[in-house]
Amino acid sequence: MPDFDVVVIGAGAAGLSVAAIGAGLGLKVALVERGRMGGDCLNYGCVPSKAMLAAGHAAAEARAAGRFGIRLAPPEIDWAGVRAHVQGAIARIAPNDSAARYRGMGVEVIEASAHFTAPDEIEAGGRRLTFRRAVIAAGSSAVIPDLPGLDGVPWLTNETLFDLEEPPGHLLILGGGPIGVEMAQAHARLGCLVTVIESAPRILAREDDELAEGVRAALLADGVTLAEGQPVARLEQLEPDSPAATAGVVAVLADGKRIAGTHLLLAVGRAPRLAGLDLVAGGVEAGPKGVRTRADLRSVSNRRVWAVGDIADPEGIGPRAFTHVAGQHAGIVVRSMLFRLPGTKVDYAALPRVTYTDPELAQVGLTEAEARAAGHDDLRIHRWPLSENDRAIAEGRPEGLVKLVVTAKGRLLGAGLLAPRAGEMAGLYGLMIGRRLPLSALAGMVLPYPTLSEGGKRAAGEFYTPKLLSSFTKRLLGLLKRLP
Question: Which of 68, 219, 474, 480 is deepest in the core (most CB within 10 A)?
């Protein structure tokens, strides 16, 4: 008889969800976590980064109050107060993810490292745990690039950035993806010099060109320096100018340009946490992108094992490093692993992603480039600028765009949003794409006025304008107007 019905490795978003549901259904569940409960999202990612972005946003709003005829003194940044806000946000949420809470649910929480010793056995904290089913939810960590000189300079990742007791004098950020640009804007608005170095031709290389350009303009307006299309050749340590100063770092670019800073943040990507799991002993196949699974997240090589969250690499789909994907994965595992429901599989057609800069960039479904690459040639692209939105004008924030990617028959494939709080608007488009609702459902919605959401309704309406103004419609109206 196995010791546990389910053993979960990793107490991040995905692991916590699986453990809670399993225990709630009356199963005997063990949850193993070697670090902090709540994983990266709570402790080093989503929560602290959004808390810091909120502080930067408050400072920016104070500086921009003049657009309303309100004169304020330039804000003074209390770094200790900012840190207290960030840590306070973590502390307030932490009880929801705590070991005590999960033990109260009936989950056996083991605070230790875990590794496989057999296809049906895991060792954790000196104990050998046999299981019917296991779920690997060990997450991901920042990629440490193989750069000459990196081992000779101090550097930060998202796991150490929020521990700085003093603000960076000049923060160099390697990587212009979502983490890089979010932290660039937050620190720039909090009074730091910031330079983002991106080897690709532009920042946010995966995002739609038009929308990414809006984020780029916002970063430049906040004083961020962008070095795009600039691979780093090597790193060097910068000696301090005085005995009281700390050593810095110099990034030497491929063209020979030298950029000196006080701190270096590595934000070039994420890698699955595979080390130490001894997956070979467990008969669990994995690759550079994570644990290889089928579409239902079951291991391709060990039928007792599933993988969820950042560490899962579903066949033909690949990993997605988002907390909301971890939640989606938990639901899939419950259906496929516990209830044995056939046909359960990952589907990212309506997956949202958000870069939480100001303005935010939200993308649901396919970008225009992704849709064309997928073979959708007969597309209709409909845009509505926020410069035509009454709420945006009233709030003095008319920069932004709603961009819809639609088939010729009116099916929404993707929606890109560049707007303040765009992430709050994304759910509507996810529902439409996920449920395959016709574009007419959006065009015919009655939305409260004035709201930014009206931009999507107006963009959808553009799809039907040619039909409404067609010669056939005009002839029909000419006949109808003769009726009594």
Answer: 219
Full-model pTM? 0.93
Q: Residues within the annotated binding site?
A: 50, 175-182, 198, 269, 310
Q: Taking the CB of residue 141, how many other CB atoms lie within 10 A of it?
A: 17
Q: What's the pLDDT tens digit per position in 228-275?
A: 998 999 999 987 765 545 669 999 999 999 999 999 999 999 999 999
Q: Please state the residue numbers annotated as binding site for FAD.
A: 50, 310
Q: Please report, as a single letter, which amino acid is at residue 184.
A: A
Average pLDDT rounded to a whole number, residues 22-28: 96
Q: Which of 339, 234, 344, 235 is nearest to 295 (CA)?
A: 344
Instruction: For 142-164, write each residue's pLDDT tens digit.
Output: 999 999 999 999 999 999 999 99
Q: Which helix (H) or strand (E) holds 43?
A: helix 39-43
Q: Tell me the sheet residues that pair with 6.
A: 29, 133
Taking residue 100's Cβ as centre, other Cβ atoms within 10 Å add up to: 9
Encode pLDDT of 275-316 as tens digits: 999 999 999 999 999 999 999 999 999 999 999 999 999 999
Binding-site residues from annotation for NAD(+):
175-182, 198, 269
Instruction: Tell me if residue 311 falls in helix, strand or coil.
Output: helix
* Structural domains in the chain, sorted by start: 4-37+98-142+271-338 (3.50.50.60), 150-269 (3.50.50.60), 352-468 (3.30.390.30)
Q: Which residues pair with 135 in a beta bridge?
A: 8, 306
The per-residue pLDDT for range 345-354, each reduced to its tens digit, is: 999 999 999 9
Say if CB 379 and CB 407 are below 8 A apart: yes
